[in-house]
Design goal:
It is built from ten helices and ten strands. It is of the alpha/beta class. Helix 5 runs antiparallel to helix 8. It starts with a strand and ends in a 28-residue tail after the last helix.
């Protein structure tokens, strides 16, 4: 069964073809970073319009690469995300499904991230702990099987990726801020500034990054007043990154110990952060699984593999399902699973 995956939840147009027998056959990704850079963040209407322009040509490219005329199943991101962008992908899936008489399955965006390591040669077995860290989400989830999810902790304010981006903006770094901050941090001393590890010592597994962001803002203002910001910029970036990573790793270790889980999946855009990967490898007493770097950010491959695993939930093309908000722990195992 060849599954066409379509991802349009935000500012990246991702398309892929996945086969349960052959694995990932073809994929394409178009990023809108250059379009949104002048605004310092994603503009929803611009994102939707660009998906309209890019999606059909990308679908044709992956079908040509895969050597097929049409898939056996179409999977599309149905949420959470920008509602207009989701409608573009969902509308395309519904239209092609009707033309090809092909079943369609809606996919939860974060379940796609959670299942992205299934694309690798050594995928994790159930059960495992999942740390999903991106610009919009920070979640710790006990995963007992497909659709058997229990959210242990989430962010009470900013997501981890959002905190990276906002801190980068405070430091005058270009959009997208997270990768730029990580690059600058390589030249800094992460012990130069004392910054909080929010909620790390409190019970439970929830996160909070607003206090850390405020602490960085005060450091930046102090350096601006002294006229030393240029000299201190890399040290502030490194100190922030260390505090954020310590918080993510510390909470993950506590959750894994509490749940008795020896396997950990780290996925989402922040999962590409080199310091986070290094610290997880050093401190986690178990096996850590990541998607390859190309599949940490939004992509069609993760939606295609999620669709393949949820093929029992597919139905005939019809009304478009798009949800701006959609709690992961409301999902259930596939029909008959």
């Amino acid at each position: 069964m060849n599954v066409l995956g379509i991802e349009t939840s935000c500012d990246e147009t991702g398309v892929a073809v996945y086969s349960a027998e052959r694995g990932l056959i073809a994929h394409r990704l178009h990023s809108q970073v250059d379009l949104h850079a002048r605004y310092g963040g994603v503009v929803p209407e611009i994102a939707s319009r660009d998906h309209v322009r890019r999606l059909l040509p990308l679908i044709q490219e992956v079908l040509d690469d895969a050597g097929i005329e049409r898939p056996d199943l179409i999977a599309h991101t149905a949420g959470p995300g920008l509602i207009g962008a989701l409608m573009v992908g969902g509308g395309m899936a519904a239209g092609l499904g009707a033309v090809w008489d092909c079943p369609v399955v809606p996919v939860h965006h974060m379940e796609g991230h959670l299942l992205a390591p299934m694309l690798e040669e050594d995928p994790p077995e159930y059960p495992f702990l999942a740390l999903l860290v991106s610009g919009g989400h920070t979640l710790l989830i006990a995963v007992r099987g497909l659709g058997r999810y229990r959210v242990l902790g989430s962010t009470l304010d900013d997501a981890a990726g959002e905190a990276f981006d906002k801190t980068a903006k405070l430091l005058g770094l270009p959009y997208p801020g997270g990768p730029a901050l990580a690059a600058l941090a390589e030249a800094g001393d992460d012990t130069a500034h004392t910054l909080p590890r929010p909620m790390l010592d409190k019970p439970g597994f929830d996160f909070s990054f607003s206090g850390l962001k405020t602490a960085v803002m005060l450091k930046v203002r102090e350096a601006e007043t002294k006229g030393t910001l240029d000299a201190e910029r890399a040290d502030i970036a490194a100190s922030f990154q260390r505090a954020a990573v310590d918080t993510l790793v510390g909470k993950s270790l506590k959750a894994a110990n509490s749940e008795g889980l020896s396997r950990l999946v780290v996925a989402g855009g922040v999962g590409a952060n080199a310091l986070l990967r290094a610290e997880m490898a050093r401190r986690f007493d178990g096996s850590v699984y990541y998607p390859r770097l190309a599949f940490c950010t939004d992509n069609g491959a993760m939606i295609a593999v999620a669709g393949a695993l949820r093929h029992a939930d597919a139905g005939p093309a019809g009304a478009v399902l798009a949800r701006a908000r959609w709690a992961l722990d409301t999902l259930e195992p596939p029909a008959g699973g």
